[in-house]
Amino acid sequence: MSESTREGIMQCGRNISAEEVVQIRETVELLPGLAVNELAATICEHLEWYTAGGGLKVDACLKLLNKLESEGVLELTKRQRARRRKQFTRNEEIIIGSRTDPGSKIEGTVGDLEEVKLEVVVNREEKKLWNEYIHRYHPLGYKNPFGYRLRYFITCEEGRLGCLLFSGAAKSLGARDRWIGWNEQQRLSNLAWVINLSRHLIFPWIAVRNLSSHVLGKIAREIEEQWQKRWKYRPVLMETFVDPEHHEGSSYKAAGWEYVGMSTGGGLVRKGERYQTTPKKIFMKPLAGEFRQALCSEQLTGGVQE
Question: Which among 92, 136, 156, 198 counts the fewest CB atoms within 10 Å?
Fold first, then answer.
């Protein structure tokens, strides 16, 4: 066992103690006939290692098993290496078709529209259509989201007005993390309760004043229930990035989002692999009054009760 393993291992926000590493190795040796997904699920049950939604943290455990095997702490059998779960695939090719051609121009104010709705995208065909709209009209294009996420269409009686995407929060943001006040361990443990508005698109042919801020206010009132329904827990905080070269962020301010500072423009994707982009404005929107207390606590589960 390596020196680092003797001191324990930090994996996906959880400290795996040296004693637990020994238990994991013993479980691997005792259950040579299990495929690795079933093995990981068994280990998660023993460690009481769960996702924010209450499910077994199998993906994190699979990464841990790979790490322990690479360090020579344990050795998986051929059967244990046989993954049954479908492997992640590359983004499907998006073919632009007539169904996402520009619609009739809609002008005026939010008050001129019938009720604006935020419809969760559920079925496969709707997802493909949403992907096509984002790929065609959003400056950042489409990238396959992973982990926790929710897609929305913004609609009214006259048709679709735009798209939203919420996904996992940025792993580390100095300005955000200082604003929240959590330490590194709390951040690693509780990051799932912060969600990121990673795509916000009003279609180019929609010229409705105050629509963007109206949508931002509406989603803040609705997303907790919808996230709970889909992922079995309630987020307590939203974040987003605004490129100051293109936008001031006025719609976020109008909807009660708070500007907390700038991103550095760089970060770590994974060990040894960094990314670089232009600095962005960071805006935050609490979903619960006691969000700081929740995020700075230990073993946060299920969200905050108002």
Answer: 92
pTM for the predicted model, two decimal places = 0.79
**Which stretches of the chain are assigned E, i.e. beta strand?**
9-11, 14-16, 106-109, 117-120, 149-156, 159-168, 194-202, 206-209, 237-242, 258-262, 266-270, 273-276, 281-286
Question: Cα 70 to the chain's mean position, in Å?
Answer: 28
Cα–Cα distances (Å) from 191 to 6, 34, 97, 181, 280, in that order, read 27, 31, 38, 13, 20
**CB–CB of 166/198 below 8 Å?**
yes
**Cα 45 to chain center, whole Å?**
24
- Distance, in Å, from the CA atom of 304 to the CA atom of 296, rounded to the nearest integer, reads 12
The CATH number given to 99-295 is 3.40.630.30
| Single-letter residue type at 216 | L
Among 242, 128, 141, which Cα is nearest to 196's? 242
Domain residue spans in the chain? Answer: 3-81, 99-295
- By C-alpha distance, which of 175, 194, 172, 178 is closest to 262? 175
Query: pLDDT of 85-127, one tens digit each?
Result: 444 444 568 889 999 999 999 999 999 998 999 999 999 999 9
DSSP 205: T
